[in-house]
Design a protein that fits this description.
Layout: E1 9-14, E2 23-28, E3 31-38, E4 41-46, E5 60-62, E6 65-67, E7 74-76, E8 92-93, E9 95-98, E10 101-105
Antiparallel strand pairs: 1-10, 2-3, 3-4, 4-8, 5-6, 6-7, 9-10
Bound molecules: FE2/S2 (inorganic) cluster.
Length: 113
C-alpha cells in the first residue's frame, strides 16, 4: 500500500480503519494526517495544530469545524482555515475513496487566507 496511484494519490488505509466517530490518523509521506468522515465524505488535515501541534484528531467536531484539544482553536476541516485567527490555517489534503481504499493526495495543499 505504498505505491503512488492516480496522479499523486496514495492509498493510506481501508475504510475499516475509521473508528465509530468516523476518524482515523494515517501517515502520508511521513506526516500524521487526521481523517474525519462528515456527512458521508472524508476530509483530511495535518494532525498537528499550527499553534502548538495539538492533535486535531482528538478535538471536538462541530459541523465541519474541529476544535483543537489543547487550546480550542477552531479549524474548518474543508479549508484548513481558523475562523478565530484569520490567516492561520492547517494543511488540508484531498481525499478519494476507491472501493474500500482511502487515498490521500501526496502533495497536500494549503488554502490561501
Ligand atoms: S495547540 Fe492547538 S490551539 Fe494550541
Amino acid at each position: 500500500m505504498n505505491g503512488h496511484l492516480d496522479g499523486g494519490f496514495i492509498p493510506v488505509a481501508t475504510l475499516d480503519v475509521l473508528d465509530a466517530r468516523g476518524r482515523a490518523v494515517v501517515q502520508v509521506d511521513g506526516v500524521a494526517v487526521a481523517l474525519f468522515r462528515v456527512n458521508g465524505e472524508l476530509h483530511a488535515v495535518a494532525d498537528a495544530c499550527p499553534h502548538r501541534a495539538g492533535p486535531l484528531s482528538e478535538g471536538d467536531l462541530v459541523g465541519y469545524v474541529v476544535h483543537c484539544p489543547l487550546h480550542t482553536w477552531p479549524f474548518d476541516i474543508r479549508t484548513g482555515q481558523c475562523p478565530r485567527h484569520p490567516g492561520v490555517q492547517v494543511r488540508t489534503y484531498v481525499v478519494r475513496v476507491q472501493g474500500q481504499h482511502i487515498l490521500v493526495s501526496a502533495s497536500g495543499r494549503v488554502h490561501a487566507p
